[in-house]
Write a structure and sequence with these properties.
By secondary structure, the protein is α/β, with parallel strands linked by helices. Helix content is 57%, strand content 12%.
């Protein structure tokens, strides 16, 4: 997936401004979709989509900050760019502290918007890549037997087979068998690759 293939959702209750922003983004070959309220945007929203959100802060009903909180509760970790015509420093600080990617005050410079958007899309792509890596490693870990997982834990601690055998009360030969199966299931050709995979899960 490339940055330009990801969808950008624009949430703003000002129809004229929203349409103008959608036209601007489409003219730069972005994939866009507009919504006139936070509530409308949330309908049918799932964790599976990889996207970026540009949202007004001050809207009737659910405002932008509440929308950000709702997305976070749903486990949707998209980069969010907030915009407002009535912004102030405390609101900007609150939005950024709550996890917003950026904060732009209307009317904003087109170049500043596009730069912020490209940065947000790069973040979304990186998060997606890490999520896929996490899911691959988690699936492999789920294939391990309890004994293989015990061997894995000791292997990544740098323990030699003899030490592992003593710790688990089994023979060195049995350790070698479990270790071989564990490495196969984890698709690791070395202890270094094994550790790197596990670190990616913990990040």
């Amino acid at each position: 997936m490339s940055e330009r293939s990801m969808k950008i959702h624009v949430v703003d209750d000002d129809d004229a401004f929203r349409d103008s922003l959608l036209w601007l983004l489409e003219s730069h070959d972005y994939q866009v979709e507009g919504h006139d309220s936070a509530e409308a945007f949330l309908i049918g929203r799932t964790r599976g989509e990889v996207a970026c959100l540009i949202a007004d802060v001050r809207m009737p009903g659910m405002n932008g900050l509440l929308l950000l909180g709702e997305l976070q509760q749903m486990g949707i970790n998209w980069p969010v760019i907030f915009m407002t015509g009535h912004g102030d420093v405390p609101m900007a600080v609150q939005a950024l502290r709550n996890g917003a990617h950026d904060f732009l005050e209307k009317p904003f410079d087109q170049a500043a918007l596009l730069a912020s958007l490209d940065s947000a899309l790069a973040v979304a792509l990186d998060r997606q890549s890490k999520l896929l890596a996490y899911e691959r490693v988690a699936a492999r870990l789920a294939l391990l037997t309890q004994r293989e997982r015990e061997v894995l834990d000791l292997v990544v601690q740098g323990k030699m087979n003899k030490v592992i055998a003593d710790a688990l009360g089994i023979s060195i030969k049995t350790v070698e068998v479990h270790r071989g199966k564990m490495m196969d299931k984890m698709r690791a050709r070395s202890v270094v690759e094994l550790v790197q995979a596990l670190v990616s899960v913990q990040e």
